[in-house]
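S2.1 Query sequence (Peptidoglycan/xylan/chitin deacetylase (PgdA/CDA1 family))
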Amino acid sequence: MPRPRSTALAAAVLAVAAGTLTAVATGPATAAAACENGYVALTYDDGPNPSTTQALLTALRNAGARATFFNTGQRVQQNPGLAQAQVTAGHWVANHSWSHPHMTQLSAAQMQQELSSTQSAIQQATGVTPRLFRPPYGETNATLQSVASQLGLREVIWTVDSQDWNGASTAQIVSAANSLQSGGVILMHDAYQNTINAVPQIVSNLAARGLCPGMISPSTGRAVAPDGGGSNPTTPPPVPGACTATYAETQRWGDRFNGQVTIRAGNSAITSWTSTVTLSGGQRINTTWNGTPSWDGTGTVLTMRPNGNGNLAPGASTTFGFTVMANGTWSAPTVTCRVS
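Output C-alpha cells follow.
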C-alpha cells in the first residue's frame, strides 16, 4: 500500500469523528476504497453497564465505528434503556448467556434456559432478536453448539483477545487490535475505561491499514461489510425519528449536584421524546425543571417527558435538568432517550 493512500484513510476516519463525513466519503465507491483490505469486528462483552456503556457508545460514535455488543440477559433486564441505546446508535446486540456461567458445566436444559431467557430479554428491550451467541469464557462443546443452533444462534468466539479483562493498558489494547486481519474478531469488554480510551486509536489504525469495523456474519461468524455493504461501513446509519441524550454536570455543592440532559433529534424530526435517568448508589433527585417527571418504584430511575411541545426538527435539541442528593455517591447518572 503506498503511504499516501494510508494517510488518506486515516484522515477519513478522523473526519468521520469530526462530523465531516460528507467531505471525505461521498458514496459507495469511496466507502469501498476506504475498506479495500476488508472488515474486522469490534466486540464488547458483559454489558450493558450503567457506569460505562454510555461512554463507550459516545466513543464509538465519535470515532464513526459500529460494534457488536454481547450482552448478558440479567444486565439487559436491569438496564433495558442502555440495550436500546446500543441499537439506536446503529450497533448490533448479541447473546452472552443470562448469568455468565461456565456453560459446559450445565445440562442441556440449563443451557437452553440461559440462552432463551437472554433472547427474550434482548427482544423485549430492543425489538431485536439476536442471531449471534458468545459463550462466557469462550468455553463450548457440542451440546452447547447444538442448543444454540436450535435457537437460531451462531456461536462466535474471537481471533484476537485484547486482554482488557486482565488489566491491559490502553496502549496494550490498541496493540492487540493492530494484529486484526480481515474477517477477524477482537474480544473487548463493556466495563473498562482503558477499553473506552482505546477506541479512537483502534479505528484510526484500522483505517491506515485499509480495514473497517464491520458486522459479524451469522452464516460464517466472520467480520463482513455491514448488511452487504453499500453505505459507509464505519458510520452508524441514520435512524428515522431517533433521539440521543447527553449528560453534563453543571454545579456541585457539599451534598448535591445539578445535572443537565440535552435531548437531540436524529436525522429526521420527532414529535415527542422520553428520557430515562438512572441514579447510582443512594442518590435521589429532589428537584427537576423543563420537563414532566415520573419515578419508578425504587426512586432511582427518573423518566422525563416534555412539559409542552415535544417537537424537534432534525438535529435540533432541548434540555432538562435536576438536582441530585449525592448521599456519598458522586458518579454521573446514566441517561438514555427514545422517541415516544
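The first helix runs from residue 3 to 17. The domain at 243-339 is CATH 2.60.40.290 (Immunoglobulin-like).
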